[in-house]
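Researcher: Re-running this chain for the archive, since the previous output was lost when a drive failed. Same request as before.
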Amino acid sequence: MSTAWTPARIVVLLGLLVLGALTGAAGWLVVDLWFPGGLLLALLALFGLFLAGRISTGTGIGVGAAAVGWFLSYVVLSLPRPEGDFLLGSSGIGMYAYLLGGSAIAVICATMRLSPDRPVSAVRPRG
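Model: Regenerated structure tokens:
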């Protein structure tokens, strides 16, 4: 996609924001449910979402939209409920690993360089 703010681009970014919130909410709940496997599953889902955002928009703004949705799901789920308890507890290392790992994956996907005009080759040119 081009770098202009077209209606199609705005719809894609809003879709990535919503997908980020849904993926984040599912990830936050899965991390506590199945700790080692749930953490890896949630981080893989984030990597797929952030990479799809990067590829679909062609810039890092797609990753940013998905990351904002992901972080907003964390904020909403960590607010205290009217009953006085929390949906997300910060008692385990899984929450911090998911927060740090998701942030690192977002930065990696936002700063990666995609070259759509030529295929990727494993052979280095001499020169």
